[in-house]
Structures are given as structure tokens and as C-alpha cells.
Amino acid sequence: MARKNKKRTKRKLKKKPIIIFLVVLVLIIISVLCIINTHITNIYIMNNYYLSDEEIIDMAGLKDYPTIIDANILSIKTKLEKNLYIRKANVYKKGFFNQVYIDVKENYPLFIYHDKTYLYNLKTTEDTYIVPIITNDIPDNIYDSFVSAMRKVDLDILERISEIKYDSNGIDNERFNLTMNDGIYVYLTLSKFDKINDYETIVSTLGDKKGILYLDSGEYFETFKN
């Protein structure tokens, strides 16, 4: 019995889907190239007090507004946190990754003690700042608690404190006397130290009076006697 020859049909290659794929691929490549060559357009610095925006931008290596690829978030964070005056840096991008946001926690100066300026993390520096000078020795057993209390003082209030003296009265061994830049003295204990943050509100009610503000107990003001 003779074999029947099968007809072979030729399939035409569909060109339209291939063309569409190639066009899409080219557009993707062009888009990626455009993105990686895009430069940083805006830099936002937040929560800095002692360091200027310009100083932080320079530390971060963003002074020349590099491309978004060169402005690597991890690299920026590492550079910033190597600086003595920055405890932590949160870095992120917005928009089309061309806007850089830097939120810093500064390692700011707390006080001068034994002729050394102590920063938030208790490292020392020879740089000078307008911060309180501790005029006598603080007992070792309350020193850590004192540092914790000082860390809670608002920065604008910190700059208004001229001197701090450890001043136990025999009843409370955590008592301090603060000399303010405006000539008013303030008594505080470590348990009530955060009350100093209300200082501006309190003195606004005193007019031009000078005296001693007792915030350690009773919360009253005693005018200096002439």
C-alpha cells in the first residue's frame, strides 16, 4: 500500500509582536539610562541645630549634586555617621529618586567639665560652644543620672545656662544650682530637671525681676534683696 505524502504547511513569523517587544525594550533601556544619568536636584536637611545645611551636604559628598546612582543612600549615611558631631543619620530619597532627605541626630555639646567640652555621647572636643560650665565636682554615683537629665534639656534652653554647680543641701544629694545668662539662679533636682525646659514661660511672668527660682521644691521665686 502506497504511503500518502503529508502536506507541510509553513508558519509565517509574526513580526508585529517582535517589533512591539523591541520597541518596549529600547524604551526601557533609554529610560534606565536617563534615570541613572539624572542628577540630584534637591537636598533637604532636617533636625540640625549646630551643624549648618552646607556642612552636612559637604560631609555627605553631595556638594556637587551627583547623579542619583552616585548618591548612594548607604554611602551617604556612612559618611555622615563617621563625623564626630553626628550620632545618627536617616537618609532616603523621594520623587524620581532625585530628591535626597537627610534627618540627623546631632552629637551636640552638653557641658564643659574639667576644661573639656563633653558631647551627647560623652566624647570630648577642644572646640568651644556656648554650653554650661560645671564649676565643681559631681559625685560619681549620680554623674550618669546627671548626664541623662542634661540630654533632655532643650537646646535653646541649654544655651541659656551659664554655669551649673552641684549643690547638695544635706536633704537632697541630687540638687543643682544653675546660673542663667540673664542673672537668675535656678535650683533643680535630677528628678525634676526637665522643668528647666519651661524656663522661658516662667520668666516671662517675672518682668525685670532678678532672683532665685526654686524648681526643686515648692516652685517659687525669691527676688534678690537690694
Key structural traits:
226 residues; 3-stranded mixed β-sheet; 2 domains; elongated; alpha/beta; 6-stranded mixed β-sheet; Rossmann fold; 6 helices; single chain; Ubiquitin-like (UB roll)
Protein described:
There is one protein chain. This protein has 226 residues and is of the alpha/beta class. It folds into two domains: 42-106, Roll (Ubiquitin-like (UB roll)); 109-223, 3-Layer(aba) Sandwich (Rossmann fold). Helix content is 26%, strand content 27%. It has six helices and twelve strands. The protein has helices at 15-36, 53-59, 73-81, 140-151, 155-158, 199-203; strands at residues 42-46, 86-94, 99-106, 109-113, 116-119, 124-125, 133-134, 161-166, 175-180, 185-189, 211-214, 220-223. Strands 7-8-9-10-11-12 form a six-stranded mixed beta sheet, with no helix packed on it. The protein has a three-stranded mixed beta sheet with strand order 1-3-2, covered by helices on one side. The chain has a three-stranded antiparallel beta sheet with strand order 4-5-6, with helices on one face. A hairpin with a 4-residue loop joins strand 2 (86-94) and strand 3. The longest helix has 22 residues, at 15-36. It is elongated, with a radius of gyration of 32 Å. The N and C termini lie far apart (138 Å). The mean pLDDT is 89.
